[in-house]
Design goal:
Blueprint: H1 2-44, H2 46-55, H3 61-72, H4 80-100, H5 103-114, H6 117-242, H7 274-398
Helix pairs in contact: 1-5, 1-7, 4-5, 4-7, 6-7
């Protein structure tokens, strides 16, 4: 950017200098044209031609003066051939002066009829050299204008392409950042939801385990109580089977106050009471049911604990993965923000560059529009001037 700014400053100074020089040259040329147009008209009048004919005539006093002057310069006397050459050369120069509207040619045409050939040809050579230099300078200026305009156009197109690319990049980055923001939020919410589910699962598991502990404890106590009752009843029930028990009351018969008669009555044969066995079996069934319930509770607790552990493991794995994902997306979002800042900076610089190029283009058009529009015509006119000068010199040279 610094080099471009320096180039722009130098170019503007050069264009300003060129404009000033062009304006000065134009003003000078217009003053020259205005000052000499009358001279052309005066020199082209018939009365002027008559005077010139008399001044170059061998019979006139002016001719004697010119001959004397020529002798002092070491040149030959004026002859009829020389006068014809002068007249022809002057006519060519005057014609070229009219076509090109150049007062210098008109003055040279007058000089061709009045001055010595050597001086006239020297003036012709000088004018041809000046015109040739002007041709070269104008070609160089034209080429420079074309080069700079093309360079400006290429640079403008490149910067417009860069501007469009940066605008598209900024739009993509904005879209990416918005998507990442939404994804980060959704993933963070998912992690929070999983953590909440894990918390609730832990609370449920804790309650289930407490119920399990209470159930197992209750059933084991029940089993102990029932086992104790079973053992006690079994002891009593077994004693009734092994030892004679007191008999029931009976009616005494044939007894008096000195003889008991048939009393006391004798017991019949003892048999086991059927109800005791049913009670023992009932207690045993209740104990068995309690043990089964305890076993079922233990199995259920093991399954619930395994499910809980699997759930917690899967949840922790998912949370770790989601956390890594969030970290990665956060880093991507930060990078996108940095890229956005850089892209906006580049876009601002590109817009400034386009403004500079537009300003340079305006300066180039001001400096180059005239020369590019009139280049061919100016070159052709100047070439015609040079050709006329060469022809006049050739005529004057041939007459010597």
């Amino acid at each position: 950017l610094a080099l471009d700014t320096e180039f722009l400053g130098n170019l503007r100074r050069k264009c300003t200098q060129t404009d000033e020089e062009f304006a000065a040259r134009t003003k000078s040329r217009m003053e020259e044209i205005a000052a000499v147009e009358d001279t052309i008209n005066i020199l082209n009048e018939d009365s002027a031609f008559d005077v010139f004919d008399r001044t170059v005539s061998t019979d006139s006093p002016a001719a004697s003066f010119l001959q004397s002057s020529s002798i002092r310069r070491g040149a030959s006397a004026t002859s009829t051939k020389e006068r014809a050459a002068r007249t022809t050369a002057a006519a060519i120069l005057r014609s070229a002066a009219r076509k090109a509207n150049l007062p210098a040619l008109a003055l040279l045409a007058a000089s061709a009829q009045l001055d010595a050939f050597t001086k006239v040809k020297a003036e012709i050579d000088k004018m041809v050299a000046e015109l040739g230099k002007q041709q070269e300078d104008e070609v160089a200026h034209r080429d420079w204008c074309i080069k700079e305009l093309n360079a400006n156009n290429r640079s403008t197109e490149e910067n417009y392409d860069r501007k469009a690319s940066l605008e598209a990049k900024i739009a993509d980055l904005e879209k990416t950042m918005e998507e990442l923001k939404k994804e980060i939020q959704a993933t963070t919410e998912a992690v929070a939801e999983m953590q909440d589910q894990m918390k609730r699962a832990s609370e449920v598991r804790e309650a289930e385990n407490a119920d399990y502990q209470q159930t197992v404890t209750d059933h084991r106590i029940t089993q102990m109580i029932l086992a104790k009752a079973h053992d006690r009843m079994k002891q009593v029930y077994a004693l009734l089977q092994d030892e004679p028990q007191p008999g029931a009351a009976h009616v005494a018969l044939s007894g008096n106050h000195t003889d008991p008669g048939n009393g006391p009555a004798r017991f019949t044969k003892y048999e086991k009471h059927g109800g005791g066995s049913r009670v023992l079996r009932m207690i045993e069934e209740v104990i068995a049911d309690s043990k089964k319930t305890e076993d079922d509770a233990i199995a259920s607790e093991q399954d619930l604990q395994a499910d809980y552990e699997d759930f917690m493991k899967e949840s922790n794995t998912a949370i770790i993965a989601y956390t890594k994902k969030v970290n990665h997306m956060t880093a991507s979002k930060s990078q996108a923000e940095e890229d956005m800042t850089a892209a906006k900076t580049d876009l601002s610089a590109t817009v400034s560059k386009l403004e500079e190029l537009h300003g340079v283009l305006g300066d180039l058009k001001a400096s180059c529009a005239f020369i590019l529009k009139n280049f061919d015509a100016r070159q052709a006119a100047r070439a015609a001037e040079m050709q006329a000068l060469r022809e006049a010199k050739a005529i004057l040279s041939g007459s010597q």
